[in-house]
Write a structure and sequence with these properties.
The structure is a homotetramer. The first copy, chain A, is an alpha+beta fold. Chain A is built from 21 helices and eight strands. Chain A has helices at 3-6, 10-15, 29-36, 39-44, 46-57, 61-73, 79-92, 95-104, 108-116, 122-134, 144-157, 174-183, 192-199, 234-238, 272-286, 302-309, 318-331, 342-349, 365-371, 385-393, 402-413; strands at 164-167, 204-210, 220-227, 253-261, 292-295, 297-298, 353-358, 375-379. In chain A, helix 10 runs antiparallel to helix 11 (144-157).
Chain lengths: 419, 419, 419, 419
């Protein structure tokens, strides 16, 4: 059971600080990249790649922009050769032709990234490089293709099979925990004491995905409350003086009340779907008393929609607000048929269903402004997520519980008549 | 220092055995693959991918061949569309066109492999899948393109930056050690006692590269002896009763006397180059007394060349054999200019130089048959490997020590006159 | 969960090899001990204690005997002062008098042992020292008191609360596993392959107690087979080709078929009692299917007793042998009322009961010679062990199952009439 | 290197929460203790001991006092029997008599404590029990003998050889770090940010001793600053904006600026002496640039002495204050000849010497009140600590550097004439 643990020599994570560098000899970062792409670069490997990464790290914003343009332009596809090679392979189906075609079908910058990644610790620097790139995209849209290459590589490198799910608790290293504080995007963590209240009690859990090449950087994490029954108020759930904590074995419900992505540079590489399901699987195995797996989620655009519909008056009562929330989440769609609400898109797309809506559930300033205080539980029934997703993908009606369906009906019957 | 270690929860490596499977419902492995490539496959993810892997594992040889043909043919490139997309992007340089082009520039089987790899533990199964494939290549050469795709993916996944260097010693798990016994390809390890003699003494070291997704599978390992002076006999080096072992801190030389690749399914993904250099770096740091890093290497094709040259008589004396070995390694070339000897190609290509040759150095049956008992030390001087490689790549003279150069001169002066 | 693991810096176990030594300056080991007992010894601590341990390690047998006599005599109790101090404290009950009394109530050699034990790694050397001492006891019975002091110290140091239970499996370090092979005392392990058959299959387990100060030395270990039903043959249980292994979750019975103490120097410090109960607790928690916890134990002195009783003829049939075994284990007693059979004394004293006896259960040469091939299952019912022990300690009838009781009755009815 | 780490199964530290308890059946804690001391208690072991510990934990202060009196009185020595046994052994020197004597020479409460300690996790509870006891000692001095027994046991259990030295850094578990904040006794740590400033910079170190049976409880820790030259101001050393941190390899001096004991229940078990020396050894090995190991220590009673001497005027200038500090630390003695200053007693007793004194070194309110802002460096030269200690123990002059000696001379020449 400790093989993977054993794998991780003490030396590993620190040593890269002391990696041998190749002398720069006045070469620009672009020259260094060209050298790294030669056969010599393949052999000198880590030393030259380290020099490239150092050179990149020393660039200012202008230098980075120039560098990105170099990658996007100089190391772009040779489309003419690619077209020819495609034709040649189409004609021959010969392995040699396939090899040539595949070499041309990938811009050299992808091989460059792989060679930079030879340096222990480089993965994190490449994720940062994409971060830097994303800051330039709006002003330099021609760099979008470079961003697509990063995304393509990261999808392969950050494949689910390479990720490790780790509990985050009060025994976790401070170095990790301070990142949890920093990255929490849904319900801010105000202090270390606040963090402890989310991690240490017997009825709280937190899990994160990590990648072995970035062991001190959580990629995404989810915070979980173990409860009796499905909760309808985030403030009550997180209250400082919520009284005695139940023992985990007494809980019947696991509530995913906050999910946060940590790495801007990994935008577009989706982990959340796997994370919720994996955590639900694991918790269900360790705590057989758990029968219900739900979120307690915000409805960020509810009030905007209510105003657009001119139904503010109805939203003034708790029941009215609940009806409208149910209606909005079930029926309000974007032109492409997807739910209008972004959080709904995520969970329904993952195979969850609408389970319950609550008024007065998030009385924070932000919660009141966005949704009039309403929140929603999405239910994850692991035996049905694949089926639910299928139905959702095929454009069927949003799957919802009986309560929700009833609320929707009521809301529809009370809809303002068109003038 | 324990973050990566912490990363590795006990649960991780075992749990995948219990991953939820999607019901097969009579689908063939090919159908399952097609499903996995749909958006539904993306969401049901691990469960469906597990079912695919199970289905593959249940195939017999014929089934596997059919499956490989399916991958090679049905999930091949659409060359016509690819040609069009290349033309469109060439014309527009538009991001949308780039995206379409990149999607077409990769056969779907690569995405399929990435989706199969979502399952914890799948990486090892995919490496095995390529193994299975390699057994079919000679009879079904049209599968070569599939093999190229595996190789392309594995190059990305097994990037040096993702590998972890680990010492292998007598405290390593038996599960790992039995693989060291099985995989040793140069000087066979006959028993656990023999293994202990290679690992436990104070003047022996062994290191392996591992990938975090296959923590109990060494990828490549190197065995090292710490000595005073450069040794010239493998039998003496490995002798059971070689007397008192020197303390590591007394050694001035590290001898890489055996390097073995472990994973047939990773053929063509070169690790040896990095391994030797990394181990030399690390040993040099931990044991400042070490000044010389050499191999003690076989010369597999020496006798064959000597016979071809008709110089067997000369090879009968130790000095004659040494002269011929020096000459052969320095001067005998393949039509493409590369050294004839495969081991020489590897080490000289990595930037090592010819340091010394020894007669009577490998008196085993195999050693006598291949090289008349001669062996060679390649010297790794880390401050010069990049330069040496460069010279080698540019086709310059093979770099060699003064002793070797002198031997070569003598050998040339004694060359048989052409009749 | 990793705090204790984190505790264990890489440095710890190796570093003591490099502990600073105080110069010996020609002092004898006895002089060094006297110095270590002064206040200076308290401060120079590890350095002086290391010198003492080195000096001891360099002694030959004669030197050790002299040293043990020094400990037994020179560092013995001052009985006169002790008597006076006891009287003074009896009169005053004053804390100062108590302090003086307690200081005199312990021979100085105990404090000496504690000071030697300051050196990391010393605990193992002190256990070895007692080993050396035990070799002298028969020839030098006056050293028995020194042995008692070791035992007293070790009871405190190797207290159950300080021991760590660890699974031993095929992922354990070879360094540990070779000790399992060496220490197995009941059913010898012939080779590494044999060891693997005891550790790797899904229906096998092994656990050992360790002490944190001797992390590479198992103290005692137990081998367990997971079965359906209670087995009645050790050869079948250990057979090389016993067919498909059941999955652990299918088993209803855990069979403790071998328990071995590892450290001669810890003789008299009983671990077996705790080990069986702890392993039964843990297995029961991890594998809820397990309902029965039994041993499969030898009956070392059965044939001797049968011969003494003159009932060899009866023992010739399986049924006869079973009856006699049941009778022997239940009724044959030593003068002090304890069971005659040593294994029975151990398990019955721990609160187990006689569950079943089997003929033809150990057909090895040793098994046939000792017990005519009979073996016995002792049953551990954790909810009853305390009560069973109580009854046993109070001299009640040996607790046994109905089958055993019936066999005893039959055996008694067939007892040869006194002539 | 991972054997000790491997030792520490995940299960270990958590599992004791779920230890089986023996039913209490209305027994008082005193009855339970008596039962635990019988042979039955030896076998039922962990279960009964757990019940005892639970029963103790449920006592209120009055109940605890009653319990302590029970231990002190009912489980006290039988002095009459002890006297007889001493006489018998003195006469016979027979092993049997020795055994009886040793059994009587220890009060039963020590065996009771060892049996309670069978429960995993009990060690910490027993340390707490002594804490509780210490609160009663002033009001119930007759319990002092019980306290002596705890101390005796803990000296054996917390022997230096059983302790593990661990770095404390920003990767340590929050659970440990919050204890560092709580236990820091010299220069308070105000917040997690403050803590990070003491742990994370490249020129800061912290080390603690732990006991394997209490893995989440530091016993004592020392904070270290790596500097160029010996510092003379604690505020500068700890300043938030002290500028760029030097790299550890550049430092020539290690400054032990704070040592804190963590466990009140281990009062009188000295760890500080070993800790400083061990940390100095380890740092010296890892950072060969370190040549000087000093403290930066308070002089808690300096101003009190100055006032008693009537030399306040002199203390008003930095030079005057330094002279007086040097004089005080070198010459001011208690009636027993030991230095008057408690910190000086500790470090000089450990073999350190007076190295330098600084005025304006601690300008905090407390620092000004205690010592007028003066601080002192004690120098640890590991090659001389044993010799220095010896001289100190033999009552020789306090060992001091030339600077200190010169200051003392000046101070003496300026001493006020007796009227």
């Amino acid at each position: 059971m400790s093989l993977l643990a054993d794998l991780t020599s003490t030396l590993f994570d620190r040593r890269y600080l002391r990696v041998r560098r190749e002398k720069r000899n006045g070469r620009s970062v672009e020259d260094l990249c060209n050298d790294l792409l030669t056969s010599r670069g393949e052999v000198s490997g880590v030393a030259l790649a380290s020099t490239v990464l150092d050179a990149y790290a020393a660039l200012d914003r202008e230098g980075r922009l120039k560098f990105f343009r170099f990658l996007a332009t100089e190391l772009d596809l040779d489309t003419a050769a690619l077209g020819d090679a495609a034709a040649a392979y189409a004609a021959s189906h010969d392995p040699g032709d396939y090899k040539r075609l595949m070499a041309l079908a990938e811009p050299k910058r992808q091989e460059l990234a792989r060679r930079m990644n030879q340096v222990p610790g480089a993965t994190r620097q490449l994720v940062q490089m994409r971060c830097d790139l994303m800051d330039e995209l709006s002003a330099a849209p021609e760099l979008a293709r470079l961003d697509m290459d990063f995304r393509h590589l990261f999808k392969s490198w950050f494949n689910r099979g390479f990720l490790v799910l780790r509990p985050i608790n009060w025994e976790s290293p401070a170095l990790i925990l301070e990142k949890i504080i920093a990255y929490e995007a849904v319900h801010a963590i105000g202090s270390w004491d606040d963090l402890r209240r989310r991690l240490q009690p017997s009825d709280r859990r937190c899990f994160a995905f990590f990648h072995p090449a970035m062991p001190d950087e959580p990629l995404i994490f989810v915070e979980v409350a173990l409860t009796k029954g499905v909760p309808g108020s985030i403030q009550k759930l997180l209250s400082e003086d919520r009284g005695a904590h139940i023992d985990a074995s007494e809980a019947d419900t696991a509530v995913f009340y906050s999910i946060s992505n940590c790495q801007k540079g990994l935008a577009g590489i989706s982990f959340g779907n796997s994370l919720i399901k994996q955590v639900a699987e694991d918790l269900g195995r360790d705590l057989p008393g758990l029968k219900t797996f739900v979120t307690l989620s915000p409805i960020p655009t509810l009030m905007k929609w209510i105003r657009a519909e001119g139904r503010e008056a109805e939203a003034a009562t708790p029941e009215g607000l609940r009806r409208l929330a149910a209606l909005y989440l079930s029926e309000a769609k974007r032109p492409n048929g997807q739910p209008m609400d972004p959080v709904a898109r995520f969970h329904l797309g993952n195979g969850a269903i609408l389970h319950e809506v609550h008024a007065g559930a998030d009385t924070s300033g932000n919660g009141m402004a966005q949704s009039g205080g309403a929140m929603v539980n999405y239910l994850y029934d692991l035996s049905k997520v694949a089926r639910n997703h299928q139905a959702f993908a095929e454009g069927e009606k949003v799957a919802a519980s009986g309560q929700i369906a009833a609320l929707v009906k009521q809301a529809q019957s009370q809809a303002p008549k068109a003038a």
